[in-house]
Amino acid sequence: MALLRGSFIRFSGGAAKPHWSQLVALSSFFATSMFITGRFNDTFQKIVDLTSLLEHQAAKELEEEGFWLSEEREREHRLLLLQQQEQRLESSWAAAIAAATAAKDFGVLCAHLEPQTLNPKPSEAQDPAASSIQILPSLSWRLNMIPYGDNSSDAHAFPTPSHELPLRAFSLSFTSNNLSGNWGDYINRQDNKNAIMRPSRVMFTDVFIPPTK
Q1: In terms of domain of life, where is this protein from (predicted)?
Q2: Residue range of the domain that includes 56
Q3: pLDDT, position 33
């Protein structure tokens, strides 16, 4: 009877007990998949972080060159440098006159007033407020000098192709304003998000550089 019962179970497709090798293979598959996925995500995140750092470095270099300054800020910076240069020349002249008067020698006055092109950084004896002169270019390129806007005659704006616009059917509830076709205008700095969504942009962007316009 036992032999007949075993044969019946075997031929009727009875449930077979899982083998330990199958469990080990399945566990190895999941572990390998998790390791590969984690390694890929970690590598991709490092690439994203490196790209963000390079963008920050480029923005910092442009900031040092005054690219992000407005016209008013640049004017104030130039006036400040002019005042500093004026104070330096006045102190240099006072020191030269005092030394020439004490020595009663015109050559001492000429030695103190050596042209800046021949002496880029005068000594403390010649100039108590010794500092190198920072010569600014007559024209500096800034962001607000770039023409922009659809109505600007100097700007060449092209409309976004229809096949590149997002589908309205996939608009979520918080982007319901896109249902009317309002995708915003980056050139004119017009945001299509409402006042609730605008402050949260920093939460879903890797690099956020505030616009100056």
Answers
A1: Eukaryota
A2: 23-64
A3: 92
